[in-house]
């Protein structure tokens, strides 16, 4: 796939591709236009023909030709690569072809199963209870058919029997988790006496399933097929394929948590809605919605669990530069029950929802203030942790300003708190000493400088390697350290500095570095980097020695060994001092 990625970038010119969707105007060396990913009146979308990258200085979207095609078409990285390859008439290597063929077979089988369960809902003798249940939940036959809702009978081996005639399909069904082997060696269906919800990807292909129990005693209430080659839960939102055009049109998206929450909104005419399915909201989900909608309304259950999930959602969105709105439903209500109770048309429902909507900052602040009424300090700590990690300076300023007003605290102090390193509270995760110190401001700043230098002067990689760059990166875990490791790997393979961005995670980093102002003096920057690396490696040695000395003291080692280690430590300290004098 990496070789194909390189071919795609060689063949396609970014300016030409973008021009199919955006009206561009040349300004100096670059082209500018109105960003296709958010609404704006003043152009802030910049395309560099020289570097073959784009960046919007309004919403922060950035990347290369593949990233642009992914975002504009709503595709995954692999889907975009294969589609662009097909358009260009590029021969796709046999391995990729076979992999794609296997995926196509799985998708084909999944759709066949969806149609099978859908057929059973209307024609199986035992499906009457399922049909009545869906009607009781307020779903019309039109909606049931539109989303291919189905029914799994009580027998538990209906699908297994249906697929017996094809060994290949049977194998695929097992791979998708639709059937499973039991102790006696026979196979049974995953779903038994359940309503079936087929799950579709962004291209409208069936990739997974959810099942809702029709008997209260059956546990779990909701059962989902596992992840597979075609079903990545962290990347798929239920209803996205059907809703995406409505979201684009209205520039607003409602986010709910369950299948029925989504279907009730759809039935009520609120078509710009998506739901997570079988997993909590993930950063990937947020990125998908970010590229499609200007406004996000999180509409989860009105109970404590729903409010906690809403707080978590706000935290994920703000880290991507989006401040969502939160719909606060009455205690005990969920989106499905709320819509069912009020029985209004879509416009009236939206007005009702508007009355219950708060901005994300106010919602989170109120949540923790109510939760920790007797402990304002704890409430503040929890609040700050939700909003830490915001990179967008304008959003960070807005958060600080609103929190300052709500909490009656200094905006400057809140900004300081938001800028501090985020500390994990999870006791199960052990953080090594190197990890704890990896994101200190000065170190992060230096790593960014090294990354910018190497992107602009890749020919100097050998010089930096001789200064110990790779050795130093072994103990670093910040985003720039991870980026540098990828960059070095690409350069050593002779692929060029842009190859490391086949992973979308690094797109924005590379764009920021390439669009950064040039260094005033290349020689001075190189000198500073070499000095930083030398000092840092010496300090790491000092740290190891200090730990060794401490260990020897604990076990009562001979004094001579301690003296020897102390001497080494003293020597290293002298080296650091010597470096400082040279710098000055």
3D structure, described in words:
The protein is 54% helix and 11% strand. It folds into four domains: 2-88, Zinc finger, CHC2-typedomain (DNA Primase, Chain A); 95-230, DNA primase, catalytic core, N-terminal domain (DNA primase DNAg catalytic core, N-terminal domain, Alpha-Beta Complex), CATH 3.90.980.10; 235-371, Dna Topoisomerase Vi A Subunit, Chain: A, domain 2; 435-583. The longest helix is centred in the C-terminal third of the chain and has 33 residues, at 522-554. A hairpin with a 5-residue loop joins strand 4 and strand 5 (62-63). It is built from 27 helices and 16 strands. The strands form four sheets. It has a five-stranded antiparallel beta sheet with strand order 1-2-3-4-5, sandwiched between helices. A five-stranded mixed beta sheet has the order 13-12-14-15-16, with helices on both faces. A four-stranded antiparallel beta sheet has the order 6-9-10-11. Helix 13 crosses helix 16 (360-371) and helix 16 (360-371) packs antiparallel against helix 17. With 584 residues, the chain is of the alpha+beta class. The radius of gyration is 28 Å and the shape is globular.
């Amino acid at each position: 796939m990496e070789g194909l990625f390189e071919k795609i970038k060689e063949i396609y010119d970014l300016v030409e591709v973008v021009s199919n969707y955006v009206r561009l105007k040349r300004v100096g060396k670059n082209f500018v236009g109105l960003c296709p990913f958010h609404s704006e009146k003043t152009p802030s979308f910049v395309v560099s023909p020289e570097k073959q990258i784009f960046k919007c200085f309004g919403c922060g979207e950035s990347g290369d030709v593949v990233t642009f095609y992914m975002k504009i078409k709503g595709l995954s990285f692999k889907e975009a690569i294969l589609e662009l390859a097909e358009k260009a008439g590029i021969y796709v290597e046999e391995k990729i072809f076979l992999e794609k063929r296997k995926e196509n077979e799985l998708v084909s089988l999944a759709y066949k199963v969806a149609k099978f369960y859908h057929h059973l809902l209307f024609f199986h003798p035992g499906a009457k209870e399922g049909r009545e249940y869906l009607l009781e939940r307020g779903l019309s036959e039109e909606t049931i058919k539109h989303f291919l809702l189905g029914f799994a009978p009580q027998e538990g081996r209906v699908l297994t029997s249906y697929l017996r005639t094809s060994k290949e399909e049977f194998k695929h069904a097992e791979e998708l988790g639709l059937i499973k082997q039991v102790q006696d060696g026979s196979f049974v269906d995953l779903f038994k006496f359940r309503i079936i919800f087929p799950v579709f990807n962004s291209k409208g292909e069936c990739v997974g399933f959810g099942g809702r129990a029709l008997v209260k005693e059956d546990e779990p209430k909701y059962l989902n097929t596992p992840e597979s080659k075609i079903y990545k839960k962290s990347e798929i939102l239920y209803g996205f394929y059907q809703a995406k055009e409505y979201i684009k049109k209205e520039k607003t998206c409602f986010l709910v948590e369950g299948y029925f929450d989504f279907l009730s909104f759809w039935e009520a005419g609120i078509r710009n809605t998506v739901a997570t399915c079988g997993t909590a909201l993930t950063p990937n989900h947020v990125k998908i919605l970010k590229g499609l909608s200007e406004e996000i309304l999180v509409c989860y259950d009105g109970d404590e669990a729903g409010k906690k999930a809403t707080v978590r959602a706000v935290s994920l969105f703000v880290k991507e530069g989006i401040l969502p709105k939160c719909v606060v439903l009455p205690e005990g209500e969920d989106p499905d029950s709320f819509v069912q109770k009020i029985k209004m048309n879509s416009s009236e429902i939206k007005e009702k929802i508007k009355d219950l909507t708060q901005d994300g900052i106010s919602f989170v602040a109120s949540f923790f203030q109510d939760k920790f009424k007797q402990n304002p300090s704890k409430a503040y700590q929890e609040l700050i942790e939700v909003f830490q990690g915001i990179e967008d300076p304008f959003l960070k300023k807005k958060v600080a300003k609103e929190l300052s007003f709500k909490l009656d605290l200094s905006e400057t102090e809140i900004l300081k708190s938001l800028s501090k390193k985020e500390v994990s509270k999870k006791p199960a995760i052990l953080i090594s000493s190197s990890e704890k110190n990896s994101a200190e401001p000065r170190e992060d700043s230096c790593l960014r400088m090294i990354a910018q230098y190497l992107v602009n002067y890749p020919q100097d990689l050998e010089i930096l390697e001789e200064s110990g760059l790779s050795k130093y990166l072994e103990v670093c875990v910040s985003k720039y350290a991870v980026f540098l490791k990828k960059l070095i790997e690409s350069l050593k393979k002779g692929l060029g500095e842009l190859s490391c961005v086949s992973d979308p995670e690094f797109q924005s980093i590379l764009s920021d570095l390439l669009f950064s102002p040039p260094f005033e003096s290349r020689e001075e920057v190189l000198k500073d980097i070499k000095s930083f690396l030398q000092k840092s490696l010496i300090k790491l040695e000092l740290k190891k020695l200090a730990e060794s000395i401490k260990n020897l003291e604990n076990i009562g080692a001979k004094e001579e060994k301690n003296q020897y280690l102390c001497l080494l430590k003293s020597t290293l300290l002298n080296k650091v001092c010597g470096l400082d004098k040279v710098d000055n």
